[in-house]
Amino acid sequence: MSSAAAFIARQGCVIPMPDLQPRLREIPQISAVLADARLAGFLAGRRRMWAGQVVQQQCDALRERLRDEAGPVRGRAELHEELVTAAVATCQGLLRPAWTKVINGTGVVVHTNLGRAPLPAAAANAARDVSMHYTDLEMDLQSGRRDHRGRAVERKAALLAGAEDALVVNNNAAALWLAVRHLGRGGPVLLSRGEVVAIGGSFRLHEIIAETGCRLVEVGTTNRTTVDDYRRALEPGALVLKVHRSNFAMAGFTAEASLADLAAMCAAEACPLVYDAGSGLLVEPAELGLPPGESVLAADVATGCDLVTCSGDKLLGGCQAGLVLGRAELIEALRGHPLRRAVRVDKSTLAALDAVLTAYLTATSLPDLPAIAALAAPAERLREQAGRLRGLVEPNLPGGWSVAVEQGVSSVGGGAYSTTELPTWLLRLRGPREELETCHARLREQDPAVLVRLNQDGLAVDPRTITDDEIATVAAAFAGVWATSGNRDGKRG
Ligand SMILES: *Cc1c(COP(=O)(O)O)cnc(C)c1O
Fold first, then answer.
1. Which pLDDT tens digit goes with each residue over 67-113?
2. Mean pLDDT of all residues in 247-258
3. How far is the CA of 260 from the centre of ligand 1 (A)?
4. Does the N-terminal or the C-terminal CB of the chain have fewer CB atoms within 10 Å?
């Protein structure tokens, strides 16, 4: 919209620019659009008011488009067709589920945009079962009395992390917020300047702390913070917070106070210590083939932090949830906090998390969880999968393309092990740049959608995050994309 037209629109006047008049005059009456037989199915019935709103919105959007349109004035019949087609497509889209299945060929295991850790069938089934029936969510069946929801799940989490008690909330952001709000009591919160981090788009430490009603006291410098820095900044009623840097790493002239050193200082100074561990690792990194460096939850708890928080859907491999682990009387106080209800989870979340934690309790080696399996996938299996995919893809390969199985790297994702590269085997596809880009985009439009990597070296499919039975589907998606682009631009016969 031109700025003059925008100004007029803001004033609520309907004085279109003179050259717009003939264009806007051709916009069909809403009633005429609504009367079109193709929309009848969506509009009939008392509850179909929404479809009328869709048509109204399409008309408004068309008016906006016409303001910016150049070229010959389009006639009413054409605009009518455009409106009806768009409205039918929108209405059909609204009747489909909001999400669609995506095959993750990126090799990023905890991919936040793709929903982080996938759940094992046992957890999904548990969530489904508990959702479809009444359940003893908040009742002790033996006594018939009311009970705290989630007690059984929280006991499992506490045992696995070696903590006295645990509390499950909506996510780690909520866990940290509640823990700091309760323990900080509106006082100073000491945090290293190197840990005032942003995680995802909206989780920024200084803002979260502001929302707890506490006052952030930055300690040390961006690259170096020592225990003495904390000690010097201590004041009565202070809380010490340590945050895992998760999604970035620092190199060069750096120093940080270890959790153990902070725990010792806090114990000596009788000052509470909260640690945001981020990813919630419950097994030793070496078991997953990850380099040392990340601590497991049990080790964090054992250092003597008052409270440790983490996510349920990162390296723990479960569903979206936040865990607060630590001293029993503190957890009990959090449970009774007036704002806990605002961050509590649904029964389906509790059921899924319960199944995931049970997988840890029963595991003889690694728990049977998709994210854990993807991290621990042996190189031979990845090579074999890439080879299988190559065999299926190669017969349909367009002219001018090549395919190969090559060594590459996957990443952990989810703000954990930000600099760690997991060796993997990739299916690499090279071809004309434009065709690679088109293919990359069209794969996302397949059903299920397929996400792969695109970089200077071409397309890459990482089998680490693809299950065995998805391999054939990925191959079919490539074949589908190539078949249609062949028809469209006649590149293939
Ligand atoms: C991921 C992460 C969070 C946010 O966790 P959510 O479960 O997404 O709320 C907070 N802190 C750290 C250190 C993280 O890595």
1. 888 888 899 999 999 999 999 999 999 999 999 999 999 999 999 99
2. 91
3. 21
4. C
Host H or E run for residue 60: helix 49-68
CA distance 328 to 70: 69
Residue nearest (by alpha carbon) to ligand 1 atom 5:
172
Spatial contact of 169 and 307, defined as CB atoms under 8 Å apart: no
CB count within 10 Å of CB 90 equals 15
Contacts of 428 (CB under 8 A, 6+ apart): 403, 404, 405, 406, 408, 457, 458, 459, 460
pLDDT of residue 11: 57
The residue contributing the CA closest to ligand 1 atom 14 is 278
CA nearest 238: which of 295, 183, 315, 200? Answer: 183
The Cα–Cα gap between 235 and 233 comes to 6
Tell me the CA–centroid distance for residue 112 and ligand 1, in Å: 11
CATH class of the domain defined by 119-368: alpha beta
What one-character DSSP code corresponds to residue 18? G
Query: Which residue's CA is minimally distant from atom 13 of ligand 1?
Result: 278
Given a cut of 70, whether residue 356 has pLDDT beyond it is: yes
Query: Residues 383, 377: contact at Cβ < 8 Å?
Result: no
Give residue 493's pLDDT.
37
| pLDDT at residue 261, as a whole number | 97
Ligand 1 binding pocket includes 242 (Cβ within 6 Å) = no
Is the CB of 227 within 6 Å of ligand 1? no
| Range 102-110+374-483 has CATH code 3.20.20.140 | no
453-469: pLDDT as tens digits = 999 999 999 999 999 99
pLDDT band for position 13 (cuts 50, 70, 90)? low
Q: Is 266 close to ligand 1, i.e. is its CB under 6 Å away? A: no
For the chain, the helix, strand and coil percentages under 3-state DSSP, each to the nearest 5: 50, 15, 35
- Paired sense of beta strands 453-455 and 458-461, if any: antiparallel
